[in-house]
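Possible regression after last week's pipeline update?

I re-ran a chain I had predicted before the update to compare outputs. Posting the input and the new output here so someone can diff against the archived version. Not blocking, just want to make sure nothing changed silently.
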Amino acid sequence: MRRNLARFAAASAMAITVLAASCPSAAGDLSIAIAPSVDNPADPQMGDHLVFETRLTNTGATPVLGVISWLSIVRVDPGQEAPIGLEDWSAEKAVTRASLAPGETIATDWPMRLIQDGHYRAVVSAASRDGTILAASPFADFTVRVKPVVQSARVIPVAAGVPLLLMLLFFMRRRASSSR
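New output (post-update):
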């Protein structure tokens, strides 16, 4: 039941995003561009940090009042499609602006820490406070590699060395006490 609910939520969020991105009347006078930062790691893995840069522009002739923009992430691995809760991934909340004048642009960086491996899509959405405008950026796809948690090259010396060291100390102490 929970998995079906997650799939429904993901499908609903994606349908709304696709509708907003493809329907000129819904997008109104806002245009959003998204791109990964040039400083991002080329092959990111769990624990790395990524930044997505966005530019939200009022392309219309009138100001847009009460602009709200936010980042969404969707996991797209087959069988695990779901929106991602950003509590662990990003501390960035919605960005708001009282008014966005014609031709004005808001540039925003959206930093995130990569928590789980997989294939993802980031999208930034924006809306006017009165609900008359809704826009979404194109998707920015990214992949997160698994980070090896246990590396045998670091574990074997400790696993073998600590017991050997303890045995050595034990025999040295025993030898010192028997020679008295």
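Follow-up from reviewer: compared with the archived run. Residues 121 and 141 are 4 Å apart (CA to CA). Marking as no regression found.
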